[in-house]
C-alpha cells in the first residue's frame, strides 16, 4: 500500500486549477528539480552556491524546497555557476483525448 501520492495523482484530482496553472506548477517543480540535481552533481553545498552566485543560502534553500517563487534574475544567477541556463522552446500542440479533454504532447 502506498503511503503517499505523487504530484501527478494530486494534480489530476485538482479540478479547481486550470490547465495553465497546472502547467506552471509542473514547470516550477521541474526547474527546481534541475537546479537541485545540478548542484548535487557538482558536489556543491547551498553555502558554496551562495558564495558563487550571491544569492543567500537560506533563499536557495527556500527555492529548492518550493517555498519561494524566485524572480527570473535570481534563477539566472543560480544557474550560471551550475553551468546551466534557460531556453525558450515551442509548446507542444494539444491533442484531443477520447474523453474530449485536451492533452499536451
UniProtKB/TrEMBL annotation:
Entry superkingdom: Bacteria
SUPFAM superfamilies per record: lambda repressor-like DNA-binding domains
InterPro entries reported in the protein's UniProt record: Cro/C1-type_HTH, Lambda_DNA-bd_dom_sf
CDD domains referenced in this protein's UniProt entry, alphabetically: HTH_XRE (cd00093)
Residue ranges annotated for the HTH cro/C1-type domain, each copy included: 35-89
PROSITE patterns: HTH_CROC1 (PS50943)
A GO molecular function held by the record: DNA binding
Pfam families recorded: HTH_3
Designated name of the protein: Helix-turn-helix domain protein
Signal peptide span: none
Amino acid at each position: 500500500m502506498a503511503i503517499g501520492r505523487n504530484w501527478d495523482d494530486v494534480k489530476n484530482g485538482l479540478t479547481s486549477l486550470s490547465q495553465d496553472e497546472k502547467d506552471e506548477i509542473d514547470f516550477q517543480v521541474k526547474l527546481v528539480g534541475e537546479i537541485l540535481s545540478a548542484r548535487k552533481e557538482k558536489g556543491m553545498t547551498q553555502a558554496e552556491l551562495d558564495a558563487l552566485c550571491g544569492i543567500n543560502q537560506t533563499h536557495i534553500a527556500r527555492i529548492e524546497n518550493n517555498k519561494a517563487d524566485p524572480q527570473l534574475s535570481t534563477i539566472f544567477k543560480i544557474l550560471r555557476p551550475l553551468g546551466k541556463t534557460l531556453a525558450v522552446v515551442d509548446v507542444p500542440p494539444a491533442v484531443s483525448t477520447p474523453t474530449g479533454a485536451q492533452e499536451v504532447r
